[in-house]
Write a structure and sequence with these properties.
9 helices, two-stranded antiparallel ribbon, N-(1-d-carboxylethyl)-l-norvaline Dehydrogenase, domain 2, 2 domains, Rossmann fold, 280 residues, alpha/beta, nine-stranded mixed β-sheet
Length: 280
């Protein structure tokens, strides 16, 4: 798989953006768009109160909040769907889109085929590769943005591609064009790197709490692990009792986890995976 950085120089003019969704991603993306000089044509959410709260927290001119998505929909250069993956088909089918509207979802694991039943729109992808949590500040210039333009018989549609590139480059220099299949593989990798790692760190913190030990004890180890993963292939940096086939230590760990069957199962699965990888 090859990443091809999109050509810089597509300087963004002020674009009108319709934002559908008011969850974690939208809450971080909306101020970034405004900060880059774009305008929000409206914010909509299935929960009106959430859209109102998001709009109220934005600086600058008041952003319209739509209670319902009825015709005529406010005009925008691009409509961004910051929605749960499962909600995309329903919302796409229900919205009275202007003919030829450029609509892009923000999902990592959803392809362009989600637009198959909405032929009156030009469907694309604007996927920010980052974890979004309340109370965290996102440094958008460090966030890779993966875009995919609507496809025509001759390739990506030029006008839609230009808008997606302009919007992406306005908030991050790390812009890549990636097809649906490769983006899905990237999303799976991201789940391993982020979601699963975070879950394992949660288990580690819980085990420390049971022993009345501070979580800060693990901080240097965590930082070194991440630093090594960024400088060499992680499989080559593997340490610990599993890769050493240290049977006494593995047995002691399993005994210590006897009171947590699900965590013990995770421990055993990861131990098996490490040992299998070391044999390859």
């Amino acid at each position: 798989m090859t990443f091809l950085p999109s050509a810089a120089g597509d300087a963004a003019t002020s674009l009108r953006v319709g934002l559908l969704g008011a969850g974690r991603v939208a809450a971080h993306l909306a101020p970034a768009l405004l900060g880059a000089g774009h305008r929000l044509a409206f914010v909509w959410s299935r929960r009106v109160a959430a859209a109102q709260a998001l709009a109220a927290g934005l600086s600058g001119p008041a952003v319209p909040v739509l209670a319902t998505l009825t015709a005529p929909l406010p005009q925008a250069d691009i409509y961004l769907l910051a929605l749960p993956d499962a909600a995309l088909p329903t919302v796409l089918a229900a919205v009275p889109w202007p003919a030829g509207a450029l609509v892009a979802h923000l999902a990592g694991a959803v392809g362009l085929d989600v637009f198959a039943n909405t032929p009156n729109v030009r469907g694309g992808v604007f996927y920010p590769l980052q974890s979004f949590s309340p109370g965290r500040t996102i440094a958008w210039p460090t966030v890779p943005l993966l875009i995919e333009a609507p496809v025509t018989p001759t390739g990506p549609e030029p006008a839609a591609r230009a808008v997606l590139l302009a919007l992406a480059h306005s908030i991050s220099p790390l812009v890549h064009e990636l097809a649906s299949a490769e983006r899905l593989r990237l999303h799976v990798a991201a789940v391993f790197a982020n979601n699963f790692t975070n879950h394992l760190l949660g288990i580690a913190n819980a085990l420390l709490a049971e022993a009345c030990l501070p979580p800060q004890l693990l901080a240097p180890l965590i930082l070194e692990t991440v630093a090594k993963a960024g400088s060499q292939p992680p499989f080559t940096a593997q340490t610990g009792p599993a890769v050493r086939h240290d049977a006494p230590t593995l047995a002691a760990h399993r005994a210590a986890l006897a009171g947590h069957p699900s965590w013990l199962a995770t421990y055993n699965q990861l131990t098996d995976s490490i040992q299998l990888q070391a044999q390859s």
